[in-house]
Specification:
The protein has 152 residues and is an alpha/beta fold. It has one domain: 3-Layer(aba) Sandwich (Glutaredoxin). A five-stranded mixed sheet has the order 5-4-3-8-9. It has a two-stranded antiparallel ribbon with strand order 1-2. The chain has a two-stranded antiparallel sheet with strand order 6-7. Helix 1 packs parallel to helix 5. The longest helix has 13 residues. The radius of gyration is 14 Å and the shape is globular. Its EC number is 1.11.1.24. It is an enzyme of class 1 (oxidoreductase). Belongs to the peroxiredoxin family. BCP/PrxQ subfamily. This is thioredoxin-dependent peroxiredoxin.
Length: 152
Amino acid sequence: MSHPLLNSQPPLDLPLTTQTGASISLRQYLGKQAVVLFFYPKDASFGCTQEVCAFRDKYDDFVKAGAAVIGVSSDTVESHSLFAGKQRVQFPLVADEKDHLRDAFQVPKTFFMAGRVTFIMDKQGIIRDVFNSMLDFAGHANNALKFVWTMA
């Protein structure tokens, strides 16, 4: 899919807070591993649970392919903590409550809700692929994993 940030480096220094309260940044992955960054609308909703669980179920394959997986929504740290615990999510879920990261990545609203878009960045932090679909919940993980293997 065409996206304005495709083949460019997005902001890497925005402070990100995960479901554990830990602070991370995209810069920490530079030179180390590819990053699959997926934006989803809402914790515990039907489609979002399917999407997050698809990434969870393929997580070991992403690790084998050399990629980190990070989920992002505008939910709170507390919401992410409950959701991640219930769904046994083993990767960071970032609480983007003010949509700073979503805005930086130019993730549009779709159907009057936060968009569902997955970005794949190489080890240099360059966005190499973008998948945008509000309805193909598991397709985000499937497409991301296929693309990550082409970079391995």
